[in-house]
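Running this now, will post back.
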Amino acid sequence: MGDHGNRYGKARTLMQGKLEERLPLFSLTFPSWFLEKYPGISKNLKINTNRLTSWYDVYATFRHMISYPDVPTNLKHGQSLFTEVPSSRTCAEASVEKHWCPCLEWASVAPGHSHVNNSALAAVEFMNNANLEHQLSANNCRKLTLKDINYALLERPNDKLLSFKQTNDLLPAFSNKSRPHHKDFCRYQIQFTTSPNNGIYEATVRYHKEWFIVSKGISRVNKYGNQPECIARDLPHLRKFCMCKKKAVNAHASKDIFLVLVKCS
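Update: finished.
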């Protein structure tokens, strides 16, 4: 099993790569006697292979194993895979954030549109601010700037849920029966490149009443290699955002060197 699919490389820049990152392989194997003894569980497991599930459900399943035959009821997220997952389940119901949801439909948007450019700038600012939250990364990581916008997508509801007609200058056109009430709300997914680290990122940004709100789940599409080595041990969550100004400007590293010098004297 894996907590994500392929995250880096040329394939990841394509739509197929986007889906593979969000749909990791997970498999369950049971002895034949178990499936014969519990045919109801066997049936539900087969059904759930074609349903929207998440790692919260795996945790719920482990809890169910411990409490069986009682189904755990004090779960904040997730549903046991021993029970049938509804076919109508949405990402929100499965506790899957918008950025990671593979069930949305997207319409292409011109990278030069002002909303797209402002969304990318907001995402870069978000990453720089994340580095500034800690003294180690603030002192050692270079400031990122927007280099290119590779593509942009505008989220739109599934045709089965909303009668979508066309996209005209980023304003979705709907039938009169299903016209949305909030004209000043939309969500973008953008892929962009930053300088000086040549990092390729994918971010989800929500536009609401002239504000651009960045989802914290920003993906880095290409490998960062040893770019963040000065903060990698202490701040692993910032590795994808950080390009070190120079090597080993690290409080722990300086202490180690000091100890070595004392020992050798």
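Strands lie at 105-109, 145-156, 164-168, 171-174, 185-195, 200-208, 211-214, 219-220. More later if anyone needs it.
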